[in-house]
Amino acid sequence: MRMKIIDDYNAKYRLWAAKPTVMAAPAAVKLPDFKSRRFSSHAELNEWKNSMLRRLAESSSVK
Amino acid sequence: MEKFHAAAAGGIIIREMNELILAFSTAGIRYLLVGGQAMRLTGMPRFSMDWDFFIPPRDDENFAKLNKVLHDEIDLPLVPLGLHGENFIQTYQTRWGVLQFHLGLPGVPRFDEAEKAVVIRSSETGAPVKCLSGKLMLAAKRAADRPQDKLTSRFLKSCSGSAKFPKSTIAPSNSHCRWGSN
Predict the structure, then answer these.
(1) pTM of the predicted protein model
(2) Does the distance separating the beta carbons of B92 and A17 come in below 8 Å?
(3) How many Cβ atoms sit within 10 Å of the Cβ of residue B135?
């Protein structure tokens, strides 16, 4: 059976690259308020970011 | 009434991210857009809540310009990289979204070198945005080696195989993949 392009998981990247389209940036979502932060490494940033995402997921007020 | 006064941008009220980036350019601020928003402008349908900017880590004049433009919006000033790597990334929640300033990027040479390979991409409103080149974005993604970066890497590799464009080129957003020469 002949493989269709939609069966190739990686095909979408080639299609996007062949005809890229700049989508409009989505409106900023309402995030829990946080103060400015300074980090010494990406690991430190990612740890904080993951905790923020957990808070966001748990928040019922986020639309 | 909004009170944001960007003196460097002629006192205009900045309501959108695109306008903030234009204000950066007007003020002569050195930056390169990186991360998910840069990928979006490359044409990959990936969305991010963050706006990541790579900036020179110890350019005092640049920090002064940035702090002037962002003065009424941020609660802590942007500061240079510390002697022991402090302040490597600085994150701010603003009306336009989360702004993250990176004073270094894994897998990417120092800012001055990356700046020479700048690729100007156009936003969805046609605003020119200085972006890290495709080749360096791929290098950063490889160095970060995060699961979510593998998809981005596949897209960038597809771009590198499709077409190459000279740096500092503004192309229509719906033309073809703009990779940059470096």
Answers:
(1) 0.80
(2) no
(3) 19
